[in-house]
TrEMBL record:
Protein name: Uncharacterized protein
Natural source organism: bioreactor metagenome
Length: 195
């Protein structure tokens, strides 16, 4: 994701706004769901390792082709020439000829795998890494290589924090069992060959 230039004051404001929004969604829990509080994406966030680390990525690039105005097909919208100024051309085919360069789909998919693009140690050891979004096309546009950006680390941590608080409070209000987030994260990791 792009660098939004957030300051500590911005993160503090986002935290306050998330608190208000979470309270509102809880108050209207029978009528409203907010995907930013997703239990699957944010609540069960965990450190990715094993097959989850080696063979998956958060980005869908390479799995959702985009057609440019000149009829060329790209791995996704973020690989169109106007977003990749002075970068390698990742054309995968044309509307007329079909997919003639399927190897570029594979390059992009493999480039988006967590193990290939997460070079920073803070990603490799982050306890909520699985929740962290990234756009490999945007990253490639910025760096000219398959390297994950880390601009949204603090935002992701806030999303995890408020998703977990939402579900803790939701379960309390509904008389449901509390969630042991550490156990759930371990279980999620075990399903992916971790541990």
């Amino acid at each position: 994701m792009e660098d939004t230039g957030c300051t500590q004051a911005d993160y503090e404001e986002l935290d306050r706004q998330m608190k208000k929004c979470t309270a509102y969604v809880l108050e209207h829990r029978d009528d409203l769901f907010w995907s930013m509080l997703s239990k699957e994406q944010f609540g069960y966030a965990h450190l990715s390792t094993g097959p989850d680390w080696d063979c998956t990525g958060h980005c869908g690039s390479g799995a959702m082709p985009a057609l440019s105005v000149d009829g060329r097909i790209y791995p996704c919208i973020r690989w169109l020439p106007h977003t990749q100024i002075d970068k390698a051309d990742f054309i995968v085919g044309t509307a007329k000829e079909g997919f003639t360069h399927k190897e570029n789909f594979l390059r992009v998919r493999e480039g988006a795998y967590r193990s290939n693009c997460s070079r920073d140690e803070k990603c490799r050891t982050c306890e909520v890494e699985s929740a962290c979004s990234y756009c490999i096309g945007g990253c490639y546009s910025e760096f000219g290589e398959f390297k994950r950006t880390t601009y949204i680390c603090e935002i992701t941590k806030l999303l995890v924090k408020w998703a977990r608080r939402y579900w803790d409070e939701y379960n309390r209000l509904e008389g449901l069992e509390p969630i042991d987030w550490a156990s759930e994260a371990r279980e999620k990791g075990n399903r992916h060959g971790i541990g």
